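Morning F.,

Quick status update on the modeling queue. The single chain you submitted on Monday has been processed. Sequence for confirmation:
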Amino acid sequence: MRDSDELLFEVGAGAGRVTLNRPRALNALTRGMCVDLFDRLTAWVSDPAIERIEIRGAGERAFCSGADVRAIRQLIAEDGDWLGFFVDEYALNALIARYPKPYVAHMSGIDMGGGLGLSAHGSRRLVDASSRLAMPETVIGFTPDVGVAWQLSRAPGERGTHVALTGDAFGAGDALALGLADSFVGDGTPAAPLAAASWIAECYAADTAVEIVGRLAQHPDPDARAAAATIAKRCPLSVAVTLEALRRAASFSGVDDVLAQDFALVQTMVPAPDFSEGVRAQLVDKDFSPRWRHASLDEVSRAEVLACFGES
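Structure tokens below.
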């Protein structure tokens, strides 16, 4: 357990301080970071000098932009151990969720995907005017993971469903309203535009993704119609699976149950063509024109959704 190029550790004034130290990569997570942070947090549990944990990202742009999915895509192409990353990442998420000491996450800047797995399960989650959060997995042919469906499925007014299906980013005010943050650091009260959008509850309460998009597309509010257009660009299978995952997570008893579901979905969705294609289009070639296996949500069958959960 030592400092590396990717993680910095410091102890002082009763705090164990962690800095994610890949600022040029927006502090994206590697497998080594997950393992080293798990080991250090485990050691600090029994260290009487450590009263609380403080975690933040290096630089001014990001807390953590999530997993290094380009590296995962490359491992898949090379038949490497891509699954090991998720084993270690989810073990870290579970540890944070049950951590016995105060765990304070400073969520300045970008906090997306796996970054929320490092922050959303903490006991004190701080946002500021620079905070921009998202679970953008439907953009890359995957589904929101790292246990965050626990919070999203319980967010009031179906707002968690909205951010999960669209993958759109949101600010500090909506992070507070969604239950992903506890306190705002700064002056004034941050705006929460999603909390004021009554059309979200009206449209996203439907039973299927097809019906949700239909309601959005026909709604008089232009923001609702824009959401329909956004979801239509996302991976159709990912959208359908994400809705199913959220509905199931709403009845789970804890974060561990959500992570178990996430792990089942990882094993079927990440090695499938949509994930590699989504990462290619968004982060490798950056043409932003993915060619999904399904042309629209109408083409996604119930059997295909269940198969992603390992069911028939």
